[in-house]
Design goal:
four-stranded antiparallel β-sheet; flat; mainly beta; 3 helices
Length: 231
Amino acid sequence: NPQYNFPFVYPQSEKGEEIAENANRAAVLDSNLDTWLPAYGIVDATGATTETGLLPNCGAVHAPTEFSGFGVLSVINVDVTGDVAGHTTTSVLAPGNTVYASTESVYVATQTWADISLFDPNEEDAWQQAWDARRTSIHRFALSGDDAAYVASGSVAGDIRNQFNLSEYDGHLRVVTTTGETWDETSETHVRVLREDAGELVEIGSVGDMGRGEAVQSVRMIGDVGYVVSC
C-alpha cells in the first residue's frame, strides 16, 4: 500500500482542507518509483541481504478497468531452485485480500467502496447509499507459460465470504455474492457468471433472490453444479 509511504496530513476542519490538499499534492509530486512499487530482498543462509530491488518493472504494472485503490498487487513466479527475480513478476494497481486459483488462472478479489462524493451529501442516507453500492473487484492472472500474466479485471455487486465463493469452469468464473444486510433482512444471495472480454471480466448471467435475510455460510462448486448454504 504505497499511501503508507507518504507523509499525508488530514484536515481537522474545513478551514484546513486547502492546506492539507496542497501538502498532500506536494508529497505525491516529490515521490519516485521506490515510493510506489513493492521491493524485494534476497537473504542468504547467514541472514545477510545479498540483493535488493523493485519487484516489478514499470512495464509489468497494469491498471484495472475500474479503479480499485492505490495498493499494488503482485503475482510472482519463483523458481524453487533459484532466486526471486523481478522480471518474473506481474502487478496490477489494486489491493487484494482473497485468492482463488484454478489450474489455468489465479483470481484475486477485494472489496471496493463507492466514493461518497458521488452521492448528494445533503441526503441523510448518503453514507448508506455509498455502503449499499459496495462491490467486489476481481483480477485474473493467467498461469499458462513461464510467467503469470495479468489478463483482465471486473467487479460484481456485493460481498464474497472467502475463496470458495469463486470457481472457474469451462472458461467462465462463477462468483457467489451477497448484497444488502442481514440485520434488516434486505440481504440477498446471487450466483453470477463472468467471462473475459477485451481485458474485462463481464457479467453474462446471474441467479438471485436466494437466502433473503440470510448470510452465506459455505459454498462448494463441483463441476457444473454449485451448492450454497445460507442461514
